[in-house]
Amino acid sequence: MTELKTYTGGCHCGKVRYEVKVDLSNPVVMCNCSRCSKLGAMLAFAPVDQLTLKEGGDVLTDYQFNKKVIHHVFCSVCGIESFARGVGPNGQEMCAINVRCLDDVDIDALKTMKVDGKSL
Ligand SMILES: [Zn+2]
Q1: How many Å lie between the centroid of ligand 1 and the Cα of residue 13?
Q2: Residue limits of the CENP-V/GFA domain (predicted)?
Q3: What is the DSSP string of 49-91?
Q4: What is the pLDDT along the chain (120 residues), one digit of tens a residue?
Q5: Which of 48, 98, 111, 120 is the most buried (most CB within 10 A)?
Q6: Ligand 1 midpoint to CA 16 (Å)
């Protein structure tokens, strides 16, 4: 059963704001790669067309590392990466939402799944 819902979210200072349709009944990903482990990001994935950037296109800074397939866009004012963009294994353009940056989501109620991003 899918529970695709529309959430709003954004960075800490409020310059970056977006709306995204995502299914949080699926486990959210806790990744152990060098970046995620420092950020403590909890990620939910959705096709990129389910993400609508409402504000902040002008303050987003793109950061890439390793194989440079993921665009880690963060707010240049407050430094928070509230989402990322990249191409999934099947060639589809995806976004990774940092569910900690969504409004009114009970993080403790979410199922989580560890992903060994360090070994990828
Ligand atoms: Zn910000």
Answers
A1: 4
A2: 7-120
A3: GGEEEEE-TTTEEEE--TT--EEEEEETTT----EEEEE-TTS
A4: 678 999 999 999 999 999 999 999 999 999 999 999 999 999 999 999 999 999 999 999 999 999 888 999 999 999 999 999 999 888 999 999 999 999 999 999 999 999 998 887
A5: 98
A6: 6
17 alpha carbon to ligand 1 midpoint, in Å?
9
| Cα(66)–Cα(7) distance, integer angstroms | 30
Residues around ligand 1, an ion, CB closer than 5 A: 11, 13, 15, 75, 77-78
Q: For residue 119, is it within any domain?
A: no
Q: How many domains does the chain fold into?
A: 1
Residue located via tokens 């995204």: 20
